[in-house]
Amino acid sequence: MAEANWYVVHTYSGYENKVKANIDKTIENRHLEEEILEVRVPMQEVVEIKNGAKKNVQKKMFPGYVLINMVMNDDTWYVVRNTRGVTGFVGPGSKPVPLTEAEMKPLGIKADKVTVDFVEGDTIAVIAGVWKDTVGVVQKMDNNKQTATINVEMFGRETPVEISFTDVRKM
Q: Are residues 30 and 81 in the same domain?
């Protein structure tokens, strides 16, 4: 299998999240999970002052652009290029150019893979992020995306939550 790289896709301004959702849905419908690994709209936290009050808000780092980690072939190119809201890949003509290691670093995208000592069925504790101090049983693991899915109790029912490998440790 060919190697996956990060590519930049140009979208209509304001359509970044819709494009991400549409591509995610297409990945699921066409079973392209092995070829299109991740779709991101890079965000950054910015402090806004409104009416004298400071407020932390999430803003898009690159309005009008979406990052996609994928194996470039005719099928994946076609799927992404023909998604509603996409105007094209960034690169000369119709040839997409992958991001380099140096370009990905400031975006917080790490190319190195994390190895973990747990498997499906193991109990893990979340040590960082939104779900910090939560304990759950691993339901599913995705080594490509470096995530584990655990069930957490929310509003009295079990809800699956995707957690990064770097945010958990084995119990």
A: yes
d(CA 10, CA 88): 5
CATH number of residue 144's parent domain:
2.30.30.30
pTM for this prediction: 0.62
Give yes or no: residues 129 and 101 share one domain: no
Alpha-carbon distance of 13 to 11, in angstroms, equals 6
DSSP code per residue over 104-145: HGGGT---SPPP-S--TT-EEEE-SSTTTT-EEEEEEEETTT
3-class secondary-structure state, position 15: coil
SS3 161: strand
Residue 123 is encoded by which pair of tokens? Answer: 């109990």
**32: number of Cβ within 10 Å:** 18
Question: What burial letters (b/e) apply to 80-98, b meaning 16+ CB within 10 Å?
Answer: beebebbeebeeeeeebeb
Share of the chain above pLDDT 90, in %: 29
User: Which CATH number do you get for residue 33?
Assistant: 3.30.70.940
Q: How many domains does the chain have?
A: 2
Which pLDDT tens digit goes with each residue over 116-146? 778 888 888 888 777 888 888 888 888 767 7
CA–CA gap between residue 13 and residue 159 (Å, rounded): 33
Residue 113, pLDDT score: 64
